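Thread title: Can someone regenerate the structure for this chain?

I was given the following input by a collaborator and told the matching structure tokens would be attached. They weren't. Posting the sequence so someone can regenerate them.
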Amino acid sequence: MKALPSVRGVTLTQWVQLGLLAVAVALGCAVPYVVGPFILGTATLALIYGLFAMSINLLAGYSGLLSLGQAGIMAMSAYGVGYVASRLEGGYLQQIVTGMAAALVASLLFGLMAMRTSRVYFLMVTLAQGMIVYGLAHSLAPVTGAENGLTGIYRPEFLTEDWQFYYMCLAVVLISGVLMWIVVRSPFGLALRGLRESSSRLRMLGYNVTAYRLYGFMLSGFFAGVAGVLFAYNNEFVSPSVAEFNTSAQAILMIILGGIGTLSGPLFGAFVIVFIQNVLSIEIDRWPTVMGLIFIAMVLFARTGFVGAVTKLWARLVARRTGRAVVTSDVGAALGSGGPATVKTPKGADDDASDDDAQPIDAQEGRETT
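Best answer:
Regenerated them for you:
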């Protein structure tokens, strides 16, 4: 495959994400010291669902391929762990390796089936794939336990306490986030964003579009598999419900709430939704109404999600203080796909420029072109 140029420098969007991530890490490390067991368990579940949402966002937000069957891949991983633990009584390493292998094999098979489709056809194919896993989870009782699920899944001795497992999940999510950050800033990440902007243009430039899509799908499936392993050990039980369409749909809502195409956004969305479902629902019977109002507010006032809204607000504050144009995104210029990246000229910074004017950026050097 043809090599892609890299983009140097960190954009404002990424600085905002790094800042939010630093705050989240600080707060996350303090959680076991300031909350009770129930809230701690809810926070652990939010981390796991956050990682799952991040895996979908890696595919949808950066390559433009929205999968509705990602829960099936997470379920394959969880069932792999559960089968080795309950049926074979294998060790922890064997459980994890089997779970991840199941997720990667499922990702490869699903990817090969879906890669030559696009748009609504891709959605339908991935939806069908998720439903296939859900159906198999019900029908293969000797393997999956059917409706009774798989029990006998236990955490390692050094993770038996809830606070220990919470810190393990926090560390795994942070490491996964760093790996995703490296990927999206690599030449391969630029190729994924090129798929989102214009796959036909990439194909005309000589890139193997199908191969990049498949690799992106498998990479997304890898992180979904990691989430599945954590899910199995968190619940110490696996049932067909993990493969339901609702699991994928809920993760997509997390992405929308936090900000699609951002690494930290899905994690924020996961915490909001999981806490509404598990904590606020205890106090308020009509908690779905509260969630609906939150999404309506996001659609009306922050269509780019929480991270996108914070980025725009920060950009305006920086532009107002410095009177200089601010880079908010590094998408596309090095690829030649979808046009050059742009900067917005802050209002009042140039008498001849309006607030909607944009100037092209040299993505290789991160400078304005003249």
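The first helix runs from residue 12 to 34.
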